[in-house]
Amino acid sequence: MPSDLSPPDAPLFCDRCMRQLHPGRGDLYVVRIEAVADPSPPEFTAEDLARDHREELARLVAQMQNLSAQEAMNQVFRRLTVFLCNNCYQQWIENPVGR
Ligand SMILES: [Zn+2]
């Protein structure tokens, strides 16, 4: 059993409908979500290069100082594990972005 599943004695519930799940009986899906802020190298426009960077940098640094390390990290990277019953999974996977 993967180490991120709850131990068998702790009840596991569907994160969507709260139905109880039973690991080992095939009634659940484990959905791992990894979200990363735009990982491509930054693109600079002529306008960016013309801007006064000292002012911009000072503003960003001031902004970062108001965030905890965890908050700053959460802005660029999040990893979630979601447990879904078969029913909720079938609905979710057809429309994961909720359109
Ligand atoms: Zn469910």
Describe this structure in words.
- With 99 residues, the chain is an alpha+beta fold.
- It is 35% helix and 22% strand.
- The strands form 2 sheets. Strands 1-2 form a two-stranded antiparallel ribbon. A two-stranded antiparallel ribbon has the order 3-4.
- The radius of gyration is 21 Å and the shape is elongated.
- The mean pLDDT is 87.
- The chain binds zinc ion.
- The site of zinc ion has 8 residues, from strand 4 and helix 4.
- Zinc ion binds at residues 14, 16-17, 19, 84-85, 87-88.
Q: How much is the average pLDDT?
A: 87
For the record, give the distance between the C-alpha atoms at the N and C termini, rounded to a whole number: 34 Å
How many DSSP-defined strands?
4
Assembly form of the protein: single chain
Q: How many helices?
A: 4
- Into which percentage range does the β-strand content fall? 15-25%
Question: How much helix, percentage-wise, in residues?
Answer: 25-40%
Strand order of the largest sheet: 1-2
Structural class: alpha+beta
Described by strand count, sense and barrel closure, the largest sheet is:
2 strands, antiparallel
Q: Sum up the overall morphology in one term.
A: elongated
Descriptors for this entry?
two-stranded antiparallel ribbon; 35% helix; 4 strands; 99 residues; alpha+beta; 4 helices; binds zinc ion; elongated
Could you give a quick summary of the protein structure above?
With 99 residues, the protein is α+β, with helices and mostly antiparallel strands. Helices cover 35% and strands 22% of the residues. It has one domain.
Describe the secondary structure blueprint for this structure.
Layout (H helix, E strand, L loop, with lengths): L11 E2 L6 E2 L6 E9 L9 H5 L2 H13 L3 H8 E9 H9 L5
Antiparallel strand pairs: 1-2, 3-4
The chain binds zinc ion.
The site of zinc ion (ZN) has 8 residues, from strand 4 and helix 4.
